[in-house]
Structures are given as C-alpha cells and as structure tokens.
C-alpha cells in the first residue's frame, strides 16, 4: 500500500525550525542567503526557497531583501514542530489503519478459501464413506431428554440410526430402544445432511438454516 510522502521542502522547514528552537539560530539573527541555506541542508535553491516561504507564512522568519532571512519567533517555531509531529502521527495512524483493513480483507479471503476447501473435502469424505456418523449434542432444556430411543421413535421421526451415545466418559455402542438419552449426552448417528436438520428440529425445535 502506498505511503504518504512528506515534501522535501517541508522537512527542511522543520530542520530550520529545530535549529531555531535549539537556539542554534537566535531570534533576531540574520540567516544566510537562500543559496547558502540550500548548500547547508543539501537541497536545491528552489527547495530552500519553498521552505523559507512556509516559515515566513507562519511568522517564524522574515525574508529581508538583500540581506538574507531574519528569525522572528522561537515559540512559533516550536508550535510548527508540534503541529508537524501531530500531522505525521495522524498520517502514520491512518496508514496503519489502512494496512490493518487490507490485512483483514486478505485474512477473510483466505478464510473463505479454507472454508470452501473444507466443505469440498467434507463432501468428498461423505461421498466416499456415507456411513461416517454425525455427532449431535441436544439442547440441555430439550423436552425430548430423559426418554428412551424407542419411545421417541427417532428413526421414524428423523431418519437417523443411532450407533452410539457418549454419556460422561462412557461410550455406549449400538444402544437399544430402551437406552435413555440424558442431558449432556452426545448422540452419534448415521444419516444424510437432511437427517442432521431433522435431528436439530426434533430435539431443539430449530432448523440448521
């Protein structure tokens, strides 16, 4: 992402202001001609002229025709530096936020691709092994709990064939029609994707959509 670049003449204006604040240039002192300032700061005469114009607009210095530049105010030079720092921090924060937004977009895109891949892989596994069981945890407040598999007629109501129930740390394989489904039990069953929705609807009274 492109960064905001500060103009060279603005940086030179700040360097001159720093020299004023640090008393390298005293208030009332006449600075060198613009061409000498340009050589001092290693820039072109035009860049030095623009820097002096910025400082003159802020009443930090005053160009004196034929005799260079006069320093007017150390306090205004200090204010200019503080504002420049604030502006620089604002630009940096803005740039950081844009970078974070861009990264978030990339992360979301990667997540979407990974999710699509997971769905494809899941679908392939289901096609290759349709007998792979689903896992389902009924809502603890379901009115269907504390009843037996047979009395609930689960297969007739949902199409699910229960192959195991995990109760606490005990896995009950091939539970018969008299096995009760208790709060906290995990049900493992064989069926289709529609069977999953039917189980949700049957136990919790909600759809998976």
Topology summary:
Layout: H1 8-21, E1 30-31, H2 34-41, H3 45-57, E2 61-63, E3 69-71, H4 74-128, E4 134-136, E5 147-148, H5 149-152, H6 154-158, E6 161-167, E7 170-173, E8 180-181, E9 186-190, H7 193-204
Antiparallel strand pairs: 1-3, 2-3, 4-9, 5-8, 6-7, 6-9
Describe this protein's structure.
The chain is of the alpha+beta class. It has 2 domains: about 1-130, Winged helix-like DNA-binding domain superfamily/Winged helix DNA-binding domain (Arc Repressor Mutant, subunit A); about 135-205, Regulator of K+ conductance, C-terminal domain (Alpha-Beta Plaits). It is about 55% helix and about 15% strand. It has 7 helices and 9 strands. It has helices spanning about 10-20, 35-40, 45-55, 75-130, 150, 155-160, 195-205, and strands spanning about 30, 60-65, 70, 135, 145-150, 160-165, 170-175, 180, 185-190. The strands form 3 sheets. It has a 4-stranded antiparallel β-sheet, covered by helices on one side. A 3-stranded antiparallel β-sheet has the order 1-3-2. Helix 1 (about 10-20) crosses helix 3 (about 45-55) and helix 1 (about 10-20) crosses helix 4. The protein is rod-shaped, with a radius of gyration of 38 Å. The two termini are about 40 Å apart. The model has no long low-confidence stretch (mean pLDDT about 85). Keywords: Coiled coil, DNA-binding, Transcription, Transcription regulation. InterPro entries: Bact_HTH_transcr_reg, RCK_C, RCK_C_sf, Tscrpt_reg_HTH_GntR, WH-like_DNA-bd_sf, WH_DNA-bd_sf.
């Amino acid at each position: 992402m492109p960064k905001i670049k500060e103009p060279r003449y603005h940086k030179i204006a700040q360097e001159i202001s720093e020299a004023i604040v640090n008393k390298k240039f005293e208030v009332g002192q006449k600075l060198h001609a613009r061409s000498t300032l340009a050589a001092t700061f290693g820039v072109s005469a035009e860049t030095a002229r623009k820097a002096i114009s910025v400082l003159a607009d802020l009443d930090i210095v005053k160009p004196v025709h034929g005799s260079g530049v006069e320093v007017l105010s150390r306090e205004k030079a200090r204010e200019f530096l503080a504002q420049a720092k604030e502006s620089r921090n604002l630009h940096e924060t803005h740039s950081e936020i844009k970078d974070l937004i861009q990264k978030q977009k990339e992360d979301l895109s990667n997540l979407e691709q990974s999710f699509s891949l997971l769905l494809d892989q899941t679908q392939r596994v289901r096609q290759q092994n349709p007998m792979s069981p689903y896992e389902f945890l009924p809502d603890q407040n379901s009115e269907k709990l504390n009843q037996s598999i047979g009395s609930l007629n689960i297969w007739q109501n949902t199409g699910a064939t229960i192959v195991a129930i995990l109760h606490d740390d005990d896995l009950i394989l091939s539970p018969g029609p008299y096995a009760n489904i208790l709060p906290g039990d995990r049900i493992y069953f064989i069926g289709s994707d529609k069977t999953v929705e039917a189980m949700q609807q049957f136990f919790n009274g909600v759809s998976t959509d």
